[in-house]
Amino acid sequence: MLSAQERAHIAQVWDLIAGHEAPFGAELLLRFPGVWAVLACKGHPPHSPPAPVGLRMLEAVGVAVRHVDNLRAALSPLADLHAHVLRVDPTNFPLLIQCFQVVLASHLQDEFTVEMQAAWDKFLTGIAVVLTEKYR
Fold first, then answer.
1. What pLDDT is recorded for position 81?
2. Which of 1, 76, 119, 128 is the S-S candidate for 9 at Cβ 3.0 to 4.6 Å?
């Protein structure tokens, strides 16, 4: 799925944000337009800080970074959770990808090159594909 150079870009960006998963995840959710409706139907108190949910999301991205060669196996439990328990609408995933890239670009600025953005877009799309496979 990813070339050696793209894998290097994924790892390089992850190294820059590692340790900041909670604030990046919270900002990701705050940038997602439908976050309050999605979180409210999942039992999250309305308008409360989404930091714990955002942290869990970024921790899952970290798992994917560490298992980039086998996303299906690494994310299978998460795919089951989203499809069968949380029942997250999979149409949210592309928008979350865009929001996450905005967060990366706003924090990393010049360090987040066009090549890195392209690699992360491909990588995050791969995650979304794996997460939606259990819906079928």
1. 85
2. 119
